[in-house]
Amino acid sequence: MTIFDTTINNQTASLNQGTTSDSTSFQSNPTLREHVAISMQQYLKQMQGQPLSDVYDLVLTQVEEPLLRAIMEHTRNNQTKAAKVLGLNRGTLRKKLKRYNLL
Predict the structure, then answer these.
(1) 52 in helix, strand or coil?
(2) Residues 36, 72 contacting (CB under 8 angstroms)
(3) Is CB count within 10 Å lower at the N or C end of the chain?
(4) Which family does it belong to (predicted)?
């Protein structure tokens, strides 16, 4: 059993019972970790045994752009504040923003 199985089983059990309990946080207040676990399990199922490579880079690319967009919006495009929120230096932030055409 993997972390993915546990999360899915808890979610399915809660949905089947029609309950919303605090012990199953996914239904009422999903964590980022839970979202990632569900998404990864769905992705792996969709691949149906096909060879996988560079999954780490794929996931980072898929997560990094919306993260940067959200933080830039949150900080009203203030790069100094955004860099601080993200824990990056401003130069690294600018490099990442350019990579995704966000500058």
Answers:
(1) coil
(2) no
(3) N
(4) Belongs to the transcriptional regulatory Fis family.
